[in-house]
Amino acid sequence: MSEIESVGAHRRNFLKSLALGSAAVGAASAGLFTDVATGTIGVPAARAAGNIKMAFIQWQPHTVSSAWSKGIEEVLKTQQTVDYRLLDGQNKVEVQVSLMDTLINEGAAVIFLQPIDSVALAPSIAKAKRAGIAVLTLNIDATEPHAAHVEMNHYFGAMDIAKALGDKLGGKGEVAILNAPPGIIIRDQRTNGFVDGLKKHHPGIKIVADQSADWSRKKAQDVATTLLAANPNLGGFYGVNDSMALGAVDVAKTKGLIGKLVIFGNDGEKDALESIEKGELTGTQYTDVYQQGRFAAAAATVLASGLVPATAFKQQGKLLMPYTIATKETVASIQPAQRW
């Protein structure tokens, strides 16, 4: 049996078990699979020898990446011919680069990647692409074009957060941003969306501070405490992720400011939703990240079962996830099974 015939047999097995992923494929395919060139299909020999290999290289263990992986597994486990692994990048670029090299050498069909550094991982993505391996990034894009990118709606969601926060403040006052370190694309998207949202909806609100809290709840506690001391008229915080927003909530509880400070986060993790229900956190942008993982896995399944090599894509596909601004008025609509 030739190499292509062998992989074709795997393809037929894939197509017998696509029921779970079909709905997600329908939703995602318009954005992910446009303008695929025809031509010779190259499939590494290692891929044709057995089960198709797929792996997700996360930044580091976190509730978000764990939920993505669960969604990915829900789709891939039904395919019967996929070996899937979740790998820990340990918050180190060099570890992610090493894991990329290992997967390339093993003949992986698809690599899901949450890049720590959008620029530093670009050479590894280019190397995978030359090997015919499709790379799908989750949430954090890379400077090297690849098969597809599936992300939360960072910019437009942050604009809606700005509107909701401003509404709670009555359209005036002072706010501070608890931010991530520079150099990460989603930091800029979530910050710029919030800034532009205030300009559009609430120009009377002033951002008096924009300080990094390193994505950390504990660091955000220290930063929020300092900012409140320096800005006695501060009316609210925007944390570019939920962990930092919850750090501000911790400080507000200690200082008796719950109900007086307006605090919004971003992501929609379970702890944030529970805090909203308790009347502590004001709101957050919720995204169903289980579904985000399912969409990415459905795209990967189509690529692998359709024998579409990474070199066939003329441009990178992109899919923005739907979202909800969760507040005390809307949080009950997010069902237990959707919480992560």
From TrEMBL:
InterPro entries: Peripla_BP_I, SBP_2_dom, TAT_signal. Keywords: Signal. The keyword Zinc does not apply. PROSITE patterns: TAT. The keyword tRNA processing does not apply. It is found in: Cell envelope. Residues 63-306 form the Periplasmic binding protein domain. GO terms for cellular component: cell envelope. Pfam families: Peripla_BP_4. It comes from the Bacteria. One of its GO terms (molecular function) is carbohydrate binding. Belongs to the bacterial solute-binding protein 2 family. This is Periplasmic binding protein domain-containing protein.
